[in-house]
Amino acid sequence: MYHYTTCYFKQFTIKALSMIPELKQLAYADRLDSLKLWTLEKRRVRADLIEVYKIVHGLSAISFSSFFEFENSGRTRGHSLKLRKKRCRLDLRLYFFSKRVVSLWNCLDERAVKSASLNCFKGNLARLRSSTIGQLFLESFVR
Hints:
This protein is an all-alpha fold.
């Protein structure tokens, strides 16, 4: 069902973008870039990171301790809000929200993670998206 919905939505997006006369001759990826839109996969990554930000900073009704714990080994490169990667025995657990976002969150820079507000965090994600390092970052996590 997930795969069907994803394919259907992507086809719908391609069709909708092809209806814009100025963009008709461009490829799908170029149309998205010219309109400054994210691909479906990158939108999911962005939504996951926004949700983690809300959980970590207490802006969500979900308690932090029920999903995550901070890395407190003292050997944290990058930012000070790194999350601990919990081990899992089953492959099924790898695709849970609390498991799949830890690597994404830990790869963000200090400026993004310590944003003063949710809108600042979204702006920092957009900044990361436009940078070369951000492009590599997002591409590495999109399946």
